[in-house]
Amino acid sequence: MGETRLLCRVFETPMSKYIYDTNRNAIINVSDNTYDFIKKYKDVGFEGIEELPDEVNMMMQEGFLSGNRVRNIEHSLTGYIEDILDNKLQTITLQVTQQCNLRCEYCAYSGTYTNRRHTDKTMDFETAKKGIDFLIQHSQNSKLLNLSFYGGEPLLEFELIQKCIEYIKVKAEGKKITYNITTNATMLNERHIEYFMANDVSLTISLDGPKEIHDKNRKFAVSGKGTFDVIVSKMKKFREQFPEYYQKINFNCVLDPRNDMSCVNEFWATDELLKDSFVNASFISTDNLDESKRKELSVQIYSCKYEYEMFKMFLSKLGRYDKNKVSKIAEASFDTIKNSLFTMRNLANRLPEVFHHGGVCVPGTRKLFMDIQGNLFPCEKCSETSPVMKIGNVEEGFYIKHVEQLLNIGKLSEERCKNCWAIRLCNLCAVAVDDGQQLSEKKKRRACKEFMDAQLEWFLYYCMLKEFGYDFDNLKIISFQTKGEEQDGL
């Protein structure tokens, strides 16, 4: 009657108990007795047990509680890398300059991190043209192209940006082209806005919250003064001059756990100038930080405030709190949870023989990044000084073996991945495991733990919302407690 040890995760809310079945990609609501039984035997299996509980029998008859595991860790697109990179590119981000007029405390190039620092180097137009030509030549099967600009501060090279946009409009005739630029906005002027409007350029502005918080980190390089007043005065002016375009501007907020999150939330929710704007929030990146800096950013009180904002957001979903008072940051977190546990989670049969977790894109296909010298990287989050992250050069093309290595980071910890309950849900990519010289199994082990802890927390959020009646578009949590049938989520 035996199976090998099960591949699942048990967890419980204050109201109920659950199993996440990895093979079936299913969340199962179980009785207390069944929960205790599975928790006791999941690591050894049911071999030798003469009589299983009825609920467990029903689950096994429906293909649940299997000990099946992946036999070989390999990404399904490994054999198609060359074809994808040759014909299906959609975007390239050009690093038009390594210079910036600010010195933000948490910036990857500020000197706090172990990768490169700001320099006065810029991209010349000939290199930029080669990057654009490279995108066009490798996008035969893509109808939509995206050209993005990155720095440093990209507006320092506004003339180069103009030349690039005019060049790709001619060279990529017949394809639809979109443009993106992220700026600190301190140099933004009417000329820039008029050009962006005329070419439908999507603009994202970095703003971290109210003055006392924003100015702690985002300072001018020369004077050391904060930039908040300059940015807000420009936003007020642009809203009056270009109201339609202003409504399309996005904002990026970097969350520093050393600051007061409640102030940040109140700012985005109530500031008259910004309360209706779209804001994307992210925590300070700890990739390429030394251990002392990582510990400095692990502030427990901030976590408590974040959980409180999440609690208010959940109450709003249940109609028990004013949704207009909900943190935009918490709302964005909810969208992430919903996407992971509802939109992207489909009931499956069993894990295939050959499998790799799905967090890894084919490096270069989503956000190919080209530095000022024409070197190619999977995206702008990569360390430009790390040899393992360099996947090619605009003159030489892609280094396929490098791409294959980054695509298959699960091989760093193959046995642990095979036995991991979260293998279907994992979103780790090579950026999280790069130690500056090579892909690190040690860093991957730490990143894996952080991901699994976060995923378990998402399970709890999701199930508790279901228990209190929130409807995820009728997505089902399975129960075998009555007649072995699937029932609507609690």
Could you give the topology of this structure?
Layout: E1 8-12, E2 17-21, E3 26-30, H1 32-41, H2 54-61, E4 72-73, H3 81-87, E5 91-95, H4 125-137, E6 144-150, H5 158-171, E7 176-183, H6 190-198, E8 201-206, H7 211-217, H8 228-241, H9 243-246, E9 250-255, H10 261-270, E10 278-283, H11 291-296, H12 300-317, H13 328-343, E11 354-355, E12 368-370, E13 375-377, E14 392-393, E15 397-398, H14 400-407, H15 414-418, H16 441-467, E16 478-479
Parallel strand pairs: 3-16, 4-11, 5-6, 5-12, 6-7, 7-8, 8-9, 9-10
Antiparallel strand pairs: 1-2, 2-3, 12-13, 13-14, 14-15
Helix pairs in contact: 4-5, 12-13
Give a description of the structure:
- With 490 residues, the protein is of the alpha/beta class.
- 36% of the residues lie in helices and 14% in strands.
- The strands form three sheets. It has a ten-stranded mixed beta sheet.
- The longest helix has 27 residues, at 441-467.
Largest sheet: 10 strands, mixed
Mean pLDDT: 89
The share of residues in extended strands comes to: 5-15%
Number of helices: 16
List its salient traits.
single chain, 490 residues, alpha/beta, 10-stranded mixed sheet, 4-stranded mixed sheet, 16 helices, 36% helix, 14% strand, globular, disordered C terminus
